[in-house]
Amino acid sequence: MALRQLSSPSMLESLNAAINGPMRASFAQPLWRPLPQILPPIRIPLALTGIFSIPSILEGIWESILRAVPKKKTSYRKKRQRLLAGKALKDITELNRCSACGRVKRAHILCAFCVQSIISSRARNLTKNIWSLKPLSSKHKWDQKPKKLNMDVDVDVQSVVSTNAKEVNVRPASTTMKSKQYLTLRTIEDAHATDIFAIAPTKTHLITASGGSSLRVYDTQSPDIPLVQELKGAHKLGCHHLATSKNGKKAASAGFEGKVKVWVAGEGSEWVEAGEIVDSNKAGEIWAVALSEDGSYLASTTYDGRINVWDLKTEGMPKIREYETKGSFGMCVDLSIDGRFTASGHENGGAYIFNNDSGRMLHSLPGLVKPIRSVAFSPLGTLLAAAGDARIIALYDVASGEQVANLSGHGAWIFSLSWNETGEYLLSGASDGRSKVWSTDTRQCVATHSESDQTIWSVTWLPKTARSEMFVTAGASRGISLYREATGG
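The line above is the sequence of WD40 repeat-like protein; the predicted structure tokens follow.
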């Protein structure tokens, strides 16, 4: 109907005149005057006239729609993700070589081949331990009546099981709370002019280091603990870590200038310098140090999380191992007595155990999320103690990597740990000036001592001799405190 109405001559002529009018005006110019004779008049179909009129009709409606619909807002989280997308992509795409097997891997994850080999070896050890258990002899009958217990002896149904690749040792643990008494044997006031950061014992001497440039050696066999030697100018900027070998023939000191100096005990127990280790000649490149039992190997940490092992018995003291972690500052390190394992603690709360024989990471230990300032292997090498800003001491089984206990009781950061010779007791020192002795059987604190409220930077047990068991503490008080067990001579 609409088409019929619009098809009348009057309406079509008026519409055609409205559309072609401007074009005729332009054709009135001299240049365009011949064109109307060549080109026929332009006729616009009715359908196109409707299309041309749509934008003008909907112009106001479209603007109102745009104003009514709110713009999509981008959250801060999305913006942050977009900003960090490049860094995350770099972490995923960046490659390096595994320090153990040499295969190419992604930089931010552990080597899949090494992890698989660790799982396989752990399964083999477990199977071997199970088949090595001996069956009960014929005299062990389940229907036997229980024997009467002597009430004078502490008996506990719980056991502490220590497992290694060769045998399974089960030793009873006492649940009764026992305390030990330690007496202050002697306190050496102003042993150094500045804070004492590290102490390390030998069978007959105690070596101390501070923010000063000298190392000092004290005779622990004499009743008055005299100063017998001073190594002047050992580290110009001060020394922050010390380590001695169990045989007492070698020592290592790490200074703030980034150097590690190796010392040997000469004739008459005089300590002399045997050489130094400089890694990349950067301050702080080498931080914590530890020596093997015979002093043949030295382990060290770096500011970027690497753990290096050095061969001290070879000329030039070359680096023989380099382990990589997640890049967090390596704050502490320790070597097991047999030299098979290296443990490290880091600023991000990570703790690791490495197998020096295979050159691979054995365990990445869970449990602590704050900086770890001290790690220590037990004398038998079955347990690893780790402590730091979390104010607890975590005990790990070296064979399985599982956390077996938490020792809680400190109210401040723990800076130092030390095992006694038998592994029955663990010594710890904290920033509130308190030192504690822990029983590994009962998992309880058996003694607490505090000479002052100033930070204790380092603690250590002295090797047991004819005298009773003793331990030493030192720190911000600039003094050295010696304690001995109350029982005995």
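Note on the example: DSSP finds seven helices and 32 strands in the chain. The helical segments are 2-6, 9-27, 35-38, 46-68, 76-83, 85-93, 112-132.
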